[in-house]
Design brief:
This protein is mainly β and 443 residues long. Helices cover 5% and strands 39% of the residues. It has five domains: 48 residues, no CATH class; 131 residues; 108 residues, CalX-beta domain (Immunoglobulin-like); 39 residues, no CATH class; 82 residues, Immunoglobulin-like. Strand 22 and strand 23 form a beta hairpin. The radius of gyration is 38 Å and the shape is elongated.
Length: 443
Amino acid sequence: MTIPIVPNVPFFGVKTFTVTLSNPSPGVVLYVPACTVNIGSAGTLDTSFASDFVDNAVYKTVLQPDGKLLIGGAFSVPNKGFARLNPNGTVDTAFGIGGGVDTLPVFALALQPDGNILVGGKFAKIGGTAMNSLARLGGGGGLDTTFNVGTGSTGEVYDFTMQSDGRAILGAGFGIIQGTPDLTVARIFTSPPALPGRVQLSAATVAGAEGTSLTLTATRTGGSYGAITMNFATQPGTAALTRYTPVTGTLSWADGDAASKTITVPLLNDAIVQPNQTFALNLGIPIGGLSNSAPWQTTVTVTSAAPIDLWSLNQFTPDELLDPSISGDNADLNHNGISTLLDYAFGLDPKVASASGLPTTAIQTIDGLKYLTLTFRRSPTATDLTYTPQSGDTINVWNGTPVQVGTAIPNADGTETVTFRDSVPITGATSQRFIRLQVTRTP
């Protein structure tokens, strides 16, 4: 969303307005539905940032991904040497070690990719624990006692630079760093480089057929430090809600957990043959210091079920559909010698044995010559079938091509009746002819 700020009447100070999100689509969660926008003339002090309680110099500020601000300096209020402020400038009272450092100031702060915080200055203790000029805090502000700095630095630590591999370069006053003399620049391990990694969906596009369940996978790669959570939800597209069940939920990884997580979306069979349609599955904003990584959204294409599958839904129960000996193409539930596939082809009831509606043969005389004919019913909607009449003078060789007689005759049940005639007459030289119908599934 882009909101133009138009320079209109000159003013000094700060003006505000509010932007509010409303009426989200089904399955979409509004985490921050409204925000206040402050418009200030260039260089104007933003008085809404209430940090005037800090009682001395601030030498370092670090903005966290969540909008909170780390500060370090020569102040004693709100905490000695370092503190964290909320986005509006108020104190984050849940952060920090009571008492802070023993000697001011704190010159350096750095935020590691895993959310831990490096602290540098001229202190000998932090939170009452001996740490010469160099320490590390957890994301909540408590001292990380697993960070072994040894003898630390005899010179003040003025700055940190984080490397992509998790190591940190520090700049310090001339002195001894962890027993090595005459150092002002050094590199330290953050032992070991602990990264939260990133979470992404396994594919940007997937497809699934109606009447099935689609499983989408979210993977965590590049690290597993820290616990993280993120919400997910389907987002409407061209697919109607009769074709899928909207889902929402939360994915969670514990500290050290890099296992893939799955999301299942039921795709519904609405018994309507229609074009492919789409909807989306989105991952929400991660909680736990995670970096963005595409794809955060997967577009799901819902494909129509084959016409025979729609027919089967009306003929069999859900349990019967799972049993190929009952509902499979070659099954013969009514024991009449006609497979389920042929029941579908001829518009028959697969559970009722009946000779009615089966193909029939006859002899047609044209100009004194006799021809075999084959009459059968077929379904115009069975676009997934191919009906192929065949003929021959032996039962093993089907090299004749019967021709259709007249036009198809519509039946009341939606099928149509057609007749095909053999292309070769029955004569003395060919005293026998055979005709049959081959029905196959169209890929």
